[in-house]
Amino acid sequence: xxxxxxxxxxxxxxxxxxxxxxxxxxxxxxxxxxxxxxxxxxxxxxxxxxxxxxxxxxxxxxxxxxxxxxxxxxxxxxxxxxxxxxxxxxxxxxxxxxxxxxxxxxxxxxxxxxxxx
Length: 117
Hints:
Number of helices: 2
Shape: elongated
Structural class: mainly alpha
Number of domains: 1
């Protein structure tokens, strides 16, 4: 009688354990759970990529500064780092425009689209 009770109890425990294990696995395979897991993994991958990209960008910036200094020394630019003033020219002169002033490189008034209508 004791032997039958032992095996019955063992069978019940094994059944409960197997049912619990299967139910956990089924809950992991629901669409909501899979979506949550995929989202978490995507966020972790994004953080890893961002960390690597930031490190890469800092390395590129450092190496770029070193190379610019080398080129500046080679070309003699570093002695006088002041750049000339930027030139401002209009791309196309419209001499038929009534606002055009002879000899001027700039238009005296900005073009108003609504004047022609």
